[in-house]
Write a structure and sequence with these properties.
Layout lengths: L2 E8 L2 E8 L2 E6 L5 E7 L4 E2 L8 H7 L8 E2 L4 E3 L2 E4 L2 E4 L9 E3 L9 E7 L4 E9 L13 E10 L2 E10 L5 E2 L3 E2 L3 E3 L10 E5 L1 E7 L5 E6 L3 H7 L11 E6 L7 E6 L4 E6 L6 E5 L6 E8 L12 H4 L3 E2 L4 E11 L2
Antiparallel strand pairs: 1-2, 2-3, 3-4, 4-5, 6-16, 7-10, 8-9, 11-12, 12-13, 13-14, 14-27, 15-26, 17-25, 18-22, 19-20, 19-21, 21-24, 22-23, 23-27, 24-25
Length: 331
């Protein structure tokens, strides 16, 4: 089995490519450390949404809807307000339609390649970003921290390890999500109607007109019950919904099955993610985003227990990490 890691190009952008047998993947360190491609070259499967006919410029304009973007802090914050430990920080209001801050600072900026290489069974790359008082986001979110992402590729698929370290002297919030954009269909010979998705959702949070949780829950509809149980087409209705995550059989995951080919992509996200955001671009066939998220949307502004809404801290010198994996069943 050929196993390689090397620096190259992805549509003209600097990339680190990983290869391991039938699989290949590419990371774009200069645009958010985004893992922009995960493919099965033997079958022609492309599991993640890549810049297509619109090209790399479309990706640069909307980096949150391709590959695996890093959201830190994730999703929406009311009026950009971020209360923490007796202070209120003001994030930029960058979503005019809602008057909220959206998606944080890390998915659009350059990361550094720390290491890449290959061994007997795996190729890998580690990218990192270090935020301190010199980083542009520090004036809004004045914490010093390092985020590292390690991707490994092997015959077992694609692994992801994320590590956050508090480099500073203040207690900082630890809020993270991935706006993972999954293709449906991922097989060139299939159509979106051939696909069924199952996700380990629990309850659906009620959202206001500004897409902020009210603190209440809404009952799941019949198709959402199928989403949790046996699976449903990813485009059964427009989705921009927020759910609690409830592991099944010890795992917090999405399973996307091509019923025509009998192949399932598994996204095992890890149980540290207590929430899911699910967005399908207005039920437009082609891709959707199952987004594992540590915290409830707008968590610092919610009067709910921290453990319930995934709002927790890192003390100076502390680490947080989690692992995830993409793999394929039925090949």
């Amino acid at each position: 089995m050929e196993i390689l890691a090397y620096e190259g190009q992805f549509e003209g952008e600097a990339a680190v490519w990983l290869k391991a047998g039938r699989y290949e993947a590419a990371v774009l360190p200069e645009t958010g450390g985004n893992l922009i491609a995960f493919r099965d070259t033997k079958k022609g499967f492309r599991f993640l949404r890549e810049p297509g006919e619109d090209g790399i410029e479309a990706f640069k304009q909307s980096p949150g809807v391709y590959g695996i973007p890093v959201l830190f802090p994730p999703n929406r914050y009311e009026d950009g307000k971020f209360p923490w430990n007796g202070q209120v920080y003001q994030l930029p209001v960058n979503e005019a339609a809602t008057g909220n801050h959206l998606h944080g600072f890390l998915h659009t900026v350059a990361w550094q390649v720390e290491d890449f290489g290959s061994g007997k069974h795996e190729s890998y790359v580690t990218v990192a970003i270090k935020v301190d008082e010199n980083h542009p986001s520090y004036k809004y979110y004045p914490f010093e921290y390092t985020v590292k992402l390690r991707y490994g590729l092997s015959e077992a698929g694609l692994s992801q390890q994320v590590l956050i370290h508090n480099d500073g002297k203040a207690v900082m919030p630890c809020l993270l999500a991935f706006h993972t954009a999954v293709n449906a269909p991922f097989a060139p010979e299939s159509s979106a109607s051939d696909y069924r998705v199952k996700i380990t959702i629990g309850k659906r949070w009620e959202l206001s007109e500004r897409m902020l949780p009210t603190g209440n829950y809404q009952p799941l509809g019949p198709e959402e019950v199928k989403l949790r149980e046996e699976g449903v087409n990813p485009f059964f209705a427009p989705l921009d919904n927020h759910y609690t995550a409830v592991p099944q059989n010890g795992r917090n995951r999405m399973e996307l099955t091509d019923t025509k080919l009998g192949v399932t992509l598994v996204y095992d996200a890890g149980t540290s993610y207590k929430q899911w955001m699910i967005w399908n671009n207005g039920a437009t066939e082609g891709f959707f985003c199952p987004e594992p998220q540590i915290n409830l949307v707008n968590a610092p502004n919610m009067d709910l227990p921290g453990d319930e809404i995934g709002l927790f801290s890192l003390k100076p010198g502390e680490f947080w990490e989690e692992t995830a994996r993409f793999y394929v069943k039925g090949l």
